[in-house]
Amino acid sequence: MSKVENFLTQEEEQAVVEAIRMAEMATSGEIRVHIEKETSLEPFDRAKEIFHELKMDATELKNGVLIYIAVKNRAFVICGDKGIDDLVPDNFWDSTKEIMASHFKMGNFKQGLIDGVSKAGEQLKKFFPFQEGDTNELSNEISKG
Length: 145
Prior knowledge:
Blueprint: H1 4-7, H2 10-24, E1 30-36, H3 43-53, E2 64-70, E3 75-80, H4 82-85, H5 92-105, H6 109-127, E4 143-144
């Protein structure tokens, strides 16, 4: 499967968006998912570019988390902004990636994304709990390239 449009059905995509919405209800942090066909860059470098393009580095508390997927490359990256990366354990994103990869290997992309979003949301909640007056700074929709 190499087409972005075939990675998730519309129904699965909405389930992931709902998982983002639910995770963000407990935190001031922001979670985004970006899916694109492929990248000619190292996936982490491309994820950092997308992070900037989506203005995830402009959140007030620097607590955005991006799940980036390059379908044809069969690669994905989880990257957080400085605010969250300074607080989570060094291997935190690796453990989240492992959970997601186990689902992806079975072709269950929706559940892998939902579990990744939920795990990211748990850490964001721990370090950046929802405060009265918090606003959703970024879209919950999945972006595509």
